[in-house]
Amino acid sequence: MKLKKIISCFAMALVATSFVGCGDMDETFKEFWAEGKIDYAGVVQDVVFYPGRERARISFMVADPTLTKARVYWNNKTEYADIDIDTKVSYGPYYVDIPNMKEATYSFQIVTFNATGGQSMDVDVPGRVYGSQYEGTLLNTPIRTASEIEGSPEKVDVKWGVPDETSIYSEITYTPLEGEQKMVKVNPLQGNYLIEDYKSGTPITYRAIYQPDSLCMDIFYSPYDECKVLGAMKKHDRTGWIADGPAGDKRTPQNLLDGDPSTEWLQPKNTSYPKVVTIDMQKELQCNGFWYMNRDGSYRVKDVNTYYSLDGENWTFISKFTWENNGAEHSEEFAEPFTARYIKLEFISDWSNGKFGLAREFGIYWR
Description:
Oligomer: single chain
CATH class of the largest domain: Mainly Beta
Number of helices: 2
Helix content: under 10%
Shape: elongated
Number of strands: 23
């Protein structure tokens, strides 16, 4: 009984305190109650920003059936664009297009309104608008070489360098055998592109096309570059050439020169890189580039430092070349042609990340 009396007294005191609190709260909020109930509008949903060239687009969905309008603000709410909403027709998506914008990064705010004048909270949307400043930073995907096919000057083999990851394709413009200039779209990731109706003796121009964002409404262009078309590649006769270097079992470096793709040079397995082969071409020859066939299987050679010499003692470094990871025939153009009698190949890695590699053929060509 005594415990019940204590609890009852405590409850009465608590109720009394609550009434005092309510009275104080009435004084604090009565000015807001006097204005009536606040009718907030529902916020937008599933907002998507689409960047563009000096323009932008924003899309969104709505869920509140009482909405009648949405407003998109930017530049600290000094500028805005409105769009009417009719949920009897659609809950979206609704699209707001914003033209004539300066290139910059923006913070947009979307606000909705309902039939009674209620307004929603802001929904923030960041986004970048692109323009000439961005376009001025774009680099062209280089053409490594463009050369006529021997016996078919109307055919030009175009070899691409490495494209930027945001470049979506390249354009080549050239003069065909008949008609006006022709433009073709090319994917440089394919490595090579064959023009089949080229008018010999005319230049080709090219540029890269960019899309900075997968949702971007516009594309952007690198500057045009011009590429001179080289004459056909002519392979030097390898009769009498001598290849000197280490070998695993009976597969010697001489197999690189025998004209038989079924034979291979096997690098020694019990040694570390580099593994060097010196080729004596027996006389001084014009060298514009080299051709090769890697092994048609695993353990293909990869990175090769390449040198040339007139006397076999004093060597000039040409470049490091990465041989393709397949057994097809490929070629590489030297940056500048030269005359040499000796070629040195310094193999420094293989595609299997091992300690040896195999290759099938090697030769020098001129134009």
